[in-house]
């Protein structure tokens, strides 16, 4: 039964397709060559796609992990009595982070921290903060007032109420925010290639500069599959976080 | 058990509870009765310090509540509310075990206590222990809510309109169960409601509240027979007063010993309104009366109801 479910799971098939394309893109050469005559080579080969993927995975993981920790911590802070006054300010800052285009962040941070991974991580971090804060605040405030009152009335300490009641109940909503943030970050990370970070965007930009459309296609398809696969994994995680449903 | 001494609570300069004094003895079932906004819930929530007291003193078991750390105090006092507030991500067992676990009871003791409470509320432990709140009916949720409040065997139980959100039939059953549990455990209960029928049915003592003060304090019978002022008279309602009086008097008050009678006996603990109802339904003018063990004690006749 379990094995059957695994075989029919779209995650497995999308994952296999993604892995196959990433590792053996060169096998498509006979297909691509006739479609793009005169482009040589037709499959991007300056770096392996695996290297590009792992590098982008590292960038996204670092930025999203930091954004999740900081975002959830800020959301916890502004939903406590002591932090309530900072609520509007934190929201405003996060909104600015989101409306500020990542390209502009790169332009500002490169002179400060140099080229490569660091400005990319900073841009992704700032860009990904808002959906996490917004969802975490909504999730924490969405805990039913009766549940809150019962927890307080039974003598749970503030920390116990947060750890045992509020966070577990808010978890699905918090997770949804992280999911949006990570999915956006995967797409956005590609622009890091313009400041020297290695990502699946590198063949896209190289292809645009050298007018090699197959490079753009190869990079774009892999980024899209990466994002879709990640979203599917979050879907799985979400189900795991709702043990009470059925 | 509880002494409330000249307690005041104001919001924005307007007193919600106004120099209120009330003393509730051990084992009493005290109902704070009043319309919304009269300060009854605020009073209740000051007892376990969910709302801070502006002035005055509340003592529980002789101790000033402000001298006890809030969490320690709350773990000693059972608390059940209208919205129940069961933790939706925890099983029935985990919910009931909340306070015992906070008090670091041993696992086996917690488990036994959960079994005991589920049985007390006539919920089969084998079935209900591992259910989640959303799998229970409203009445079952409320039973678990009250069981949770009783879990650590508190001397005092605070209940804020716990049955307001359930349907009338379930409410009736829950009230009967609570009355039974109060008799069986001898807990002191402070119970907030706006429902006069509920108050008459459950209370040993009723405090009728009006704009932050107590309009009258007395047994259900005293409240009905000698309302202290127009407000109480109005609140209790002239309509159906006779039926309410029947509902607070017991068959045992009017028992006529010795005589035999035909038919299904009525319990000594039944109210006179139940007796009237039984007589009407059976077209009989007298009913045999028995005690809990089913021993025949005598009869009650229609004329006894209006004596």
Write a structural description.
Chain A is mainly alpha-helical and 246 residues long. In chain A, 75% of the residues lie in helices and 0% in strands. Chain B has 307 residues and is an alpha/beta fold. Chain B has helices spanning 40-47, 70-76, 92-96, 98-102, 107-120, 125-128, 138-150, 168-185, 196-202, 220-225, 230-236, 241-248, 272-282, 302-305; strands at residues 2-11, 14-24, 29-33, 55-60, 63-64, 77-81, 156-160, 188-193, 205-210, 213-218, 256-257, 266-267, 286-290, 296-301. In chain B, the strands form 3 sheets. A 6-stranded mixed beta sheet of chain B has the order 6-7-8-3-9-10, with helices on both faces. A 4-stranded antiparallel beta sheet of chain B has the order 2-1-4-5, covered by helices on one side. In chain B, α12 packs across α13 (272-282). Chain A binds chain B through residues 144-157, 160, 164-165, 168-169, 243-244, and chain B through 48, 50, 70-75, 79, 81-89, 98-99, 102, 132, 134, 145, 148-149, 158.
Total helical segments of chain A = 11
Using the CA coordinates, give the radius of gyration of chain A. 22 Å
Q: Mean pLDDT of chain A, nearest integer?
A: 90
First-to-last CA distance of chain A? 18 Å
User: How much helicity do the residues of chain B have?
Assistant: 25-40%
- End-to-end Cα distance of chain B, whole Å, is 36 Å
Largest sheet strand order of chain B: 6-7-8-3-9-10
Give the count of helical stretches of chain B. Answer: 14
What is the number of strand segments of chain A? Answer: 0
Which ranges of chain B are low-confidence, i.e. pLDDT below 50, for 5 or more consecutive residues?
none
Measured as a percent range, the helix fraction of chain A is over 70%
- Helices and strands of chain A: which structural class? mainly alpha
Runs of chain A in which pLDDT lies below 50 for 5 or more consecutive residues are none
Mean pLDDT of chain B: 89
Q: Could you say which overall geometry of chain B the principal axes of the C-alpha atoms support?
A: globular
Write down the Rg of chain B.
Answer: 21 Å
Task: Describe the sheet with the most strands of chain A.
Answer: none
Give me the strand/helix succession of chain A: HHHHHHHHHHH
DSSP strand count of chain B: 14
Shape, per Cα inertia axes of chain A:
flat
What is the oligomer described by this structure? Answer: heterodimer
